[in-house]
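From the methods appendix. Each design record in this collection lists the tokenized structure first, followed by the designed amino acid sequence. Records were kept in a plain field format so they could be parsed without special tools. The example shown here is representative of the layout used throughout.

RECORD:
FOLD TOKENS (656 positions):
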């Protein structure tokens, strides 16, 4: 009995051991399966989170883009949209054939792009059918040319055709936009100076970019939406209506949030402008702030503005980031509703698996262009406004062109400097004449002073002499030659100007002095600096004449800048001088020194001096007193004082 029990115990122990081993093996298999499932779940969760982040970024980018476009809506709307479109069409006359090919490519692209998801339903259904047959027959499923291969190859060809037509239309539209951009740039460059061209080309770049992307995207989006929604209606009217309802709801939410975002970002921009202004004011006026011990108050103003900016920026960032989750929630809700309804139709046999997955492809095909249509339309509106400004610029009346070199009037040898205004008429606007009948003659070597109150027309007189503006009547002659028949470049070579606002470019002092005469030697530069009483100052600089300066350099005073510009004119040695209050920014002692240098320079040269301080022109050979664009008195200092007219009143008011 005991032995039987032992035997039975041995058997039980063996069975127990076998059971433990089987349990351990099963446990290991379960652990491996659990690990594999956990890994799959982790990968699925990571993919889901990646998709979530991608959609967040896309929604945030769309909200930001809508905000930027809304900011420009008010100022970036063309006055006449269709007139501008027709003008652009006529400007691109040589590229119309490219447009026709683009339109044809868009049509074929939409056809193939819409056919691909629709054909995918057949691919999926055929694959699913063959897989079910193989499963029922317990056979291995394989793809051959007859067994789904031909269908997949056709599916591949459809996508290849769509990609080819998209590449073709993108290339041609870029070519059209850049060629039109270049054509308009050349026309503007022929008409305007460099600074205005720089501003105008910003509009041209915006127009070109919108044509390359915006116009193409608009046409493709319209075609894609129409094609996708049409096929969706063929697949299921019920599911399509559900999709359109949620799409409209999403667009409505986006529009409402974007309007609120527009208001908040506008307020943020105001505070940014206030801070920028305060910082710039504090920097430029730091010496005054320190002198009046206002550092603490100035700092407090900037900090208070910064706090307000932080508050408004927080609100703006929230509004920008809120639209993404809101739109994504509506999109997810739409997919859930469509999935539930679609599954019920699938179970009921009213829809195949291929059609079901194809419908979800069309949801993406239609929803993305719908979201972008409003942004694209606003972008095109802004581009048309830019094009309209360019055309306004091109339609402005141009200055009279210089005569051809063979037809241009030439000065007779050495320039003597006789300048004559003969019944000159001029107005900045044709219906508002400024000068009605201005006549005077400056003989060679004379010093002509032009005086008058602010806005009397002194600078206008000089501008007409230099042909910065064209006169409306009469004529201006230089040594008997009508200046309107001369080449502007040759005319202006005879003049040297010292303006009230001294200008220096980024370079050395020697380069600034030799600006009008780059071939001048160092000795000639030094001689001009000495004549302008600036040599001593230059030699106190760290590198002397090789010291680099700029127009905003604080190491050089305004008076010293003006001395350098006077040296620049002295070196150029022109036949006629124009001095626009050239000594206004120097002290009395320096003014006297420059006056002596100017006397030597002007000896034998005709000179025009615009002066507010009448003490500087008492030795002028002829004084022109101007008022409202006309010469009301002319004569010498003594003659005008004796006449007791406007000049006498102006002179006595300065020395009373």
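DESIGN:
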């Amino acid at each position: 009995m005991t032995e039987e029990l032992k035997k039975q115990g041995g058997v039980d122990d063996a069975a127990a051991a076998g059971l433990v081993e089987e349990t351990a093996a099963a446990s290991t298999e379960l652990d491996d399966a659990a690990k594999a499932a956990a890994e799959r779940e982790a990968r699925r969760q990571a993919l889901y989170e990646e998709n979530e982040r991608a959609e967040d970024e896309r929604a945030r980018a769309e909200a930001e883009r809508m905000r930027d476009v809304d900011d420009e809506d008010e100022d970036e709307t063309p006055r006449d949209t269709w007139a501008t479109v027709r003008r652009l069409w006529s400007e691109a006359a040589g590229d119309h054939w490219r447009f026709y090919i683009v339109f044809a490519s868009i049509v074929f692209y939409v056809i193939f792009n819409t056919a691909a998801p629709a054909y995918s339903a057949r691919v999926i259904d055929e694959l699913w059918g063959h897989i079910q047959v193989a499963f029922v027959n317990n056979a291995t499923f394989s793809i051959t040319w007859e067994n789904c291969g031909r269908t997949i190859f056709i599916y591949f060809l459809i996508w290849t055709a769509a990609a080819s037509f998209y590449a073709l239309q993108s290339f041609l539209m870029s070519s059209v936009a850049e060629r039109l951009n270049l054509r308009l740039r050349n026309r503007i460059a022929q008409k305007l100076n460099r600074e205005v061209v720089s501003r105008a080309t910003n509009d041209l770049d915006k127009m070109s970019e919108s044509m390359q992307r915006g116009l193409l995207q608009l046409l493709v989006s319209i075609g894609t939406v129409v094609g996708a929604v049409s096929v969706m209606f063929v697949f299921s009217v019920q599911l399509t209506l559900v999709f359109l309802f949620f799409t409209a709801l999403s667009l409505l939410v986006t529009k409402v949030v974007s309007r609120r975002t527009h208001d908040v970002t506008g307020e943020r921009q105001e505070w940014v402008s206030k801070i920028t202004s305060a910082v710039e004011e504090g920097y430029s006026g730091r010496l005054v702030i320190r002198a009046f011990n206002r550092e603490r108050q100035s700092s407090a103003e900037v900090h208070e503005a910064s706090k307000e900016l932080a508050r408004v920026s927080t609100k703006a960032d929230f509004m920008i980031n809120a639209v993404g989750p809101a739109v994504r929630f509506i999109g997810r809700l739409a997919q859930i509703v469509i999935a539930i309804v679609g599954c019920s139709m699938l179970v009921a046999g009213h829809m195949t698996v291929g059609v079901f997955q194809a419908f979800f492809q069309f949801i993406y095909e239609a929803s993305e262009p719908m979201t972008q249509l409003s942004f694209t339309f606003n972008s095109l509106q802004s581009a048309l406004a830019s094009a309209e400004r360019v055309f306004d610029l091109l339609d402005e009346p141009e200055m009279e062109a210089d005569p051809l070199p063979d037809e241009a009037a030439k000065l007779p040898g050495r320039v003597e400097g006789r300048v004559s205004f003969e019944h000159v008429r001029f107005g900045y606007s044709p219906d508002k004449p400024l000068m009605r009948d201005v006549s005077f003659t400056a003989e060679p070597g004379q010093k002509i002073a032009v005086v008058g109150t602010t806005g009397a027309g002194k600078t206008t007189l000089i501008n007409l002499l230099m042909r910065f503006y064209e006169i409306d009547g009469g004529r201006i002659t230089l040594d008997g030659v009508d200046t309107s028949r001369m080449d502007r470049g040759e005319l202006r070579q005879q003049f040297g100007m010292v303006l009230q606002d001294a200008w220096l470019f980024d370079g050395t002092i020697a380069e600034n002095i030799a600006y009008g005469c780059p071939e001048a030697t160092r000795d000639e530069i030094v001689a001009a600096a000495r004549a302008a009483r600036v040599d001593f100052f230059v030699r106190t600089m760290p590198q002397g004449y090789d010291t680099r300066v700029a127009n905003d350099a604080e190491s050089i005073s305004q008076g010293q800048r003006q001395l350098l510009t006077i040296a620049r004119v002295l070196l150029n040695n022109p036949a006629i001088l124009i001095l626009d209050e050239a000594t206004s920014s120097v002290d009395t002692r320096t003014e006297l020194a420059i006056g002596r240098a100017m006397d030597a320079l002007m000896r034998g040269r005709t000179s025009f001096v615009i002066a507010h301080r009448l003490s500087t022109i008492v030795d002028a050979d002829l004084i022109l007193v101007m008022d409202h664009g006309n010469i009301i008195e002319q004569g010498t200092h003594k003659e005008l004082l004796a006449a007791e007219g406007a000049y006498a009143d102006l002179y006595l008011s300065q020395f009373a």
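APPENDIX NOTE: Residues 7 and 479 are 142 Å apart (CA to CA).
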